[in-house]
Amino acid sequence: MKPTWAVACLLAVLLAAGCSNKQKVKPDGVGSAPTVSVASAASWRGAGEAAAPQVKEMPIVEVPAPPTSVSLPVAGPQYKLGPEDQIRVSVWENAQLTLDLVVRPDGKISMPLIQDVTAEGQTAAELATQIQQKLTAFIKEPQVSVIVLQINAPKFYVIGNVVRPGTYPLRGETSVLQALSLAGGFTQFASLRSIKLIRNAGGKQEVRKINYYDVIDKGGEGNYLLKSGDTIVVP
């Protein structure tokens, strides 16, 4: 009987344990979810943030812009200088003779030591050679360069009894007749036999008389090609 009693006791213990487990299960068979306190959740979130790696901002590096070119030539090698053109004359290792100059109305420029130099009608290379030759009397083996900084477009003027008097750019070979056409022709008060062409030649004023009828009837006599600075006067 002792073994039977022992088995009965074992069964009783197992049944008691089973009943205890059943009380912890809800009627729908789903166990209760574990509760998490607010403090523990906050501490968990804070721990997570602390654990996240910090991303450092990369420093902004400014790349310097490439240097801009200075005093680039604006004219071709065959360009001939004229009044009001701006040039730069550079003499190697001589800052006092490195100058920005404007060709005067008389076609000349002025420099220390050598005074006036004719620039009108010469290329930049020809002018540099002329300056170099003049400087040899003062400087041993001077090295001279000339750069055209600004070209002031050649122009001519038409005044008097024309439809559109004013200043006109000289874009190429332009004759007196073409210039008068650009000015719109004559008004009814124009004196066609007394037209004048005024030109500055070597610092002196030159006046040429033009008879419009001779230009038309005598094979273009008086139909001169204009130069920069010429003025046509129609009385």
Structural overview:
By secondary structure, the chain is of the alpha+beta class. Among the domains are: 65 residues, wza like domain (wza like fold, 2-Layer Sandwich), CATH 3.30.1950; 80 residues, Outer membrane lipoprotein wza fold like. The chain is 26% helix and 25% strand. The protein has five helices and ten strands, in the order H-H-E-E-E-E-H-E-E-E-H-E-E-H-E. The chain has a five-stranded mixed β-sheet. A hairpin with a 3-residue loop joins strand 3 and strand 4. The radius of gyration is 50 Å and the shape is flat. The termini are far apart.
Radius of gyration: 50 Å
How many β-strand stretches? 10
What is the CA–CA distance across the termini? 159 Å
CATH topology of the domain at 155-234: Outer membrane lipoprotein wza fold like
The named CATH superfamily of the domain at 155-234: Outer membrane lipoprotein wza domain like
Concise description?
Among the domains are: 65 residues, wza like fold; 80 residues, Roll (Outer membrane lipoprotein wza fold like), CATH 3.10.560. Helix content is 26%, strand content 25%.
